[in-house]
Amino acid sequence: MTAAVEVRDLVKRYPKRDVNAVDGLSFTVEPGEIFGLLGPNGAGKSTTIGVLTTRVKATGGEARVAGVDVIRDSVAARKLFAVVPQQTNLDRSLTPRQNLAFHGAYHGLSRTDRFAKAAALLDEFGLADQADVKVDWYSGGMAQRLMIARAMMHEPKVLFLDEPTTGLDPQSRLFMWERVRDLRSRGVTVVLTTHDMDEAAEMADRVGIVDHGKLLALDTPEGLTRSLAGHAVLDLSVTPGDGDDPDKLVAALTDVAGVERGEAVAGGPIRLYLNTDPDTVLAPVIAVLSGRSATLTNVHMGAASLEDVFIDLTGRGLR
Amino acid sequence: MTDLDTRPSAGEVRQPTVDARPSAGKAFRAILWRDIYVTGKEFWVFLAQVALQPLFMLFVFAKVLNAGGYVTDDYAHLLLPGIVALTAFLTALQTVSFPLIMEFSFTREIEDRLLAPLPTYLVAVEKLLLAVIRALASAVIMFPIGALVLGSAPWHTDGIPLLIAGLVLGSWVGAGIGLTLGTMVPPSKISVIFAVILTPLMFTGATQYPWQSLDSMRWFQVVTALNPLTYLSEAVRAAVVPDVPHIAPWICILVLLASGAASTAVGVRGFMRRAIN
């Protein structure tokens, strides 16, 4: 079956820059998948989406959407995908209903078809009551919903969502997640970029982590968190004994069997990444602590989160 | 609901029902229709934009100054064609430049049209076509308004083909310059366009004076010869008031053709640079 999105050895270098914004990126998105593209600011996510949506000219490599080469055949490709940008780009000279109808007209829908479809989508996205007001009156969440409805007017095979829930209230966010899952169940492939790790873990079937224009990891959210130093983490709130300090404690605790590595978060607990179950490690850990006369005040057993994986791969440095 | 309710089994991608035939023509017409529809919706704004300034110019230069005895009746008939030329030229220029500056920056409204299934340069061509349509509409409005202000308007039936050709080509040149400015100027510099580009264009375009009357001011005659608006003004005057000495119409048409081609080439290149990174 044709891949929904196929990127191979993609390179983009902007003029007057000495590094590549996208530097040999390759990945494939299967039809019907929700694919999350994660990365810090400036990692190359937006440029990659820009190439796939025919707005950025690639320097090298290949990019296909639903089997169509977006670089060589951009007009045909535009029928097969739709984009919902982070920043609203609705047509403010038109009403919400006209925004949908004109989008349909640009994509060749007949008059009857586009008005019928606009009405159905406005209803589905909870905008039917405010379909004929000024777009300027719309809240951020409503504008976002209208942009997704607009994107669905020409029935794309692939929908690109750029940070779909940034700045939305919890209700709008839940509604958005529901709609995106609904799109998948209709066979639409969704590619989303996000900074929100919970959103990526919750929504995406697979996640690609990008930094400096390169793909660092690609797997299911579970697979990624599992790959990070084992299955689980153990957070210990500890007061070191006299003459001891957290770093020395971490060093000692890392020697315990089953502990892959550890770190002392400044002002916070000591976090141990385990490659075995937490309960088998707990007793030896307590033994080490009492041996160094440290006081244990709290223990938390948990799984590594996608955010841990993200930080582990892309570092703590500010961009 | 409509066909949106058909839900295929998991993993299957539904075939699009959208027509897969060449789409550029349909998309182009739809984009043009969007702009004409919006113009119609805001028709009074359009009317005020195009008619108010030339109206006041005609009134003060041809009526008020005439009442004081500073200009003759003949000057009014010489001024009206020039004002029609100026109106068409500026309407075309502003139709493209100002919206484009906003749409490429703050509002990003143009993005939905840039992603329509047609070659990107056609979105720029549509802007030019719309500008010519609006400019011709403004020229058509200006004749009766002028007649109303002046009491009569000059008319010369034999000159109609030249009038139409001149106005179409002149509007095209204005639109091309508008496209160039609209894709080059950042939004923070909009006011600079007015001061540094628009005002000199307006006053060196032989709209308020025939070009040959500048024989005694050689340097200014040379400056005006560099402004394509001069050739539009001269062509419209040659068509409407042929008795007034004017540049030969074939020269005007030739210069307008060349300026239109050049400004379009530069403008479309600028548009492509903005549309695709």
Automatic annotation (TrEMBL), chain A:
One of its GO terms (molecular function) is ATP hydrolysis activity. Residues 5-237 form the ABC transporter domain. It comes from Phytohabitans flavus. Pfam families: ABC_tran. InterPro entries: AAA+_ATPase, ABC_transporter-like_ATP-bd, ABC_transporter-like_CS, P-loop_NTPase. The keyword Methyltransferase does not apply. It comes from the Bacteria. This is ABC transporter ATP-binding protein. Keywords: ATP-binding, Nucleotide-binding. PANTHER family: ABC TRANSPORTER, LINEARMYCIN RESISTANCE ATP-BINDING PROTEIN LNRL. PROSITE patterns: ABC_TRANSPORTER_1, ABC_TRANSPORTER_2. The keyword Transmembrane does not apply.
From TrEMBL, chain B:
InterPro entries: ABC2_TM, ABC2_TM_bact-type, ABC_2_transport, Nod_factor_ABC_transporter. The chain crosses the membrane at residues 43-62, 82-107, 128-150, 162-185, 192-211, 247-268. GO terms for biological process: response to antibiotic. It is found in: Cell membrane; Membrane. Keywords: Antibiotic resistance, Cell membrane, Membrane, Transmembrane, Transmembrane helix, Transport. It is a multi-pass membrane protein. Its main location: membrane. Pfam families: ABC2_membrane. GO terms for molecular function: ABC-type transporter activity. Residues 45-274 form the ABC transmembrane type-2 domain. GO terms for cellular component: ATP-binding cassette (ABC) transporter complex. PROSITE patterns: ABC_TM2. Belongs to the ABC-2 integral membrane protein family. This is Transport permease protein. It comes from Phytohabitans flavus.
